[in-house]
Amino acid sequence: MGALAVLILPLLVVGVSGIIYIYRSVVQLMSKSAVRSKVVVITDALSGVGKECSRVFHTGGARLVLCGKDLDKLEALYDALNSTADPRATFTPKLVLLDLADINCVQDVAKEILDCYGCVDILINNASAKVRGTVQNISLEVDQKIMDANYFGPVTLTKALLPNMISRRTGQIVLVNNIQGKLGIPFRAAYAASKHAALGFFDCLRAELQEFGVCVSSVTPSFIRSDHIQPEPSKSDSSIWKCKIRRIC
Asked: Considering Cα of 162, then 164, then 170, then 176, what sign does the dihedral take?
C-alpha cells in the first residue's frame, strides 16, 4: 500500500500541473482574443494613460478610435502604433478631434465616432483637465471649465453613445477617474469636485445598465508618472501635507 501511494503521488502532481498549465494557456489565449476586432474609443489618447491604452488595445487587435485635441500629435501617435505592430494582426486606428470641454461639439463628434465603424464596444473616458490653487483664487469661470472637461464632457459623450450599446445589449464603459474623486486634498477643490461628480454619475449608471448587459467600470488611481513634466510641489503644498500627517498621527 505504501509503495502504491508513492507511485500515485507523483502522478497526481503531474496531472494537477498539467491541468494548471492548460488553464493558464486558455486564459492567456482568451485575454489576447478578448479585444480582437472590438471597437475601442479612447478619449485623450495623447495623455500618458491614453497612449499606453492605445498601445495595449492596438497590439491586441482592437479597432481603435483615438480622440484628442491636437491633430498633429494624434498623427504622431498613429505612426508610432503602426510602426511597431504587425499589420496582419492589427487594424489602422481612426483619428477624431475631440475637446470634451467644448460641450456643444460633443454630440457631433459622437456621430463621427459612430460613423467610423457603426458601433462602439468599449468607451474609455480618459480625458481630464487639472487646476491647482486656493478656493478663493480660483474663479467660477475656471470651476465651470473644469466641470465641463471632467464631468459634463464625459457624461455628454457617454449619453450620446449609450443607445448604441443598449440596442446591441453589450458594451463596456470605463471611467478613468482619480483618487481625488474619493478624497479631497489641498489646492485641488475644483478638480476633486469634478471627479467626485463623475464617480457618482458612473456609479449610478452601472446600476442602471446591468439589465442591458452593459458594464460600467471606474478606475481610481492616485498620482501617475507619465511623459509629461510635472511641476515641483510648492512649499505651501509641503507644509499643509505635513500638517495633515501630524493631525492623522
From this structure: negative
Sign of the dihedral through C-alpha 130, 69, 72, 113: positive
Which pLDDT belongs to residue 227?
Answer: 52
Q: Which of 107, 97, 193, 88 has its CA nearest to residue 151?
A: 193
21 catalytic? Reply is no
Asked whether the whole model's pTM tops 0.85, one would answer: no
Assess contact for 60 and 36: CB atoms under 8 A. yes
Beta strands in the chain (DSSP E): 39-42, 63-68, 94-97, 122-125, 171-176, 214-219
Q: Are 131 and 191 in contact (CB under 8 A)?
A: yes
What grid cell was written down for 176?
Answer: 478613468
The 10s digit of each residue's pLDDT in 54-87 is 999 999 999 999 999 999 999 999 999 999 888 8
- Residue 243 pLDDT more than 50? no
Classify residue 104 as exposed, middle or buried by CB count within 10 Å of its CB (0-12, 13-18, 19+): exposed
Read off the pLDDT band of 113 (50, 70, 90). Answer: very high
- Segment holding 88, helix H or strand E: none
**Beta strands in 59-155, from DSSP E residues, in sequence order:** 63-68, 94-97, 122-125
Residue among 21, 23, 117, 191 flagged as catalytic: 191
pLDDT of res. 27: 52
- Cα(48)–Cα(1) distance, rounded to whole angstroms? 63
